[in-house]
Amino acid sequence: MARRMLIRVLLADDQSLVRAGLRTMLEAHDDLTVVAEAGNGAEALVAAVELRPDVVLMDIRMPGVDGLLATRRIVADPRCRATRVVVLTSYDLDEYVYEALRAGASGFLLKDCEPFELVHGVRVAARGDALIAPSVTARLVAEFARRPRRARPNTAFDALTDREREVADLVVAGLSNEEIAERLVVSPATVKTHVSRTLTKLGVRDRVQLIVLAHETRTT
């Protein structure tokens, strides 16, 4: 059996006991290693740029530079292009989570999640997928739909083909790849290809950022 590729993780939390617990859970698996710890957002940014981890587990509420600003700066830095930020939060879909997703986070994990959920979440984020379950995605979509759109005109959607635009609309509606495949009567592999091309054309990292972009820039 082939050995899994080693996933390098940066822990950012102002509580040393929390970091110690996360490290213990992650390093119990031979495909996960913690490359550094940070006690605030400023330290997390420095470590992310220097070490370029695959995944940053980022607490939101930290002294000084908080997790929101750190996430925004890490995602914007071209040196961290391959790094995915996963937000750690005590509250499911609170205001800080929305802001973190707007800042470029690829998803979130609750601090009281089970060890297997933490490990699975890091692996999902590392392979470039959005770390939000379909049921939560639907709620995220509903919340963004309820809020006023931001006036940020963007013509990127004009570059999509008709099929890509159709797939994008279904992603924004909260459908999974399997549900989209069933709706369009195509294979999940075909949908995955369309989603990948759509993300590339729009310049976003994952389907969460596609949802954010759509609800903040599109006028229809």
TrEMBL record:
Tell me the ranges covered by the HTH luxR-type domain, including all copies: 153-218
**Pfam families per the UniProt record, alphabetical:** GerE (PF00196), Response_reg (PF00072)
Q: Which SUPFAM superfamilies match?
A: C-terminal effector domain of the bipartite response regulators (SSF46894), CheY-like (SSF52172)
> Where does the record place the modification 4-aspartylphosphate?
59
- Recall the GO molecular function terms of this protein's record: DNA binding
> What biological processes does GO assign it?
phosphorelay signal transduction system; regulation of DNA-templated transcription
In what residue span(s) does the Response regulatory domain sit?
Answer: 8-126
Which InterPro entries does this entry report, sorted A to Z? CheY-like_superfamily, NreC/VraR/RcsB-like_REC, Sig_transdc_resp-reg_C-effctor, Sig_transdc_resp-reg_receiver, Tscrpt_reg_LuxR_C, WalR-like
Q: What keywords does the record list, in alphabetical order? A: DNA-binding, Phosphoprotein, Transcription, Transcription regulation
PANTHER family, from UniProt?
TRANSCRIPTIONAL REGULATORY PROTEIN NARL-RELATED, TWO-COMPONENT RESPONSE REGULATOR
Query: Which protein, by its recorded name, is this?
Result: RNA polymerase sigma factor, sigma-70 family
Record organism: Amycolatopsis arida
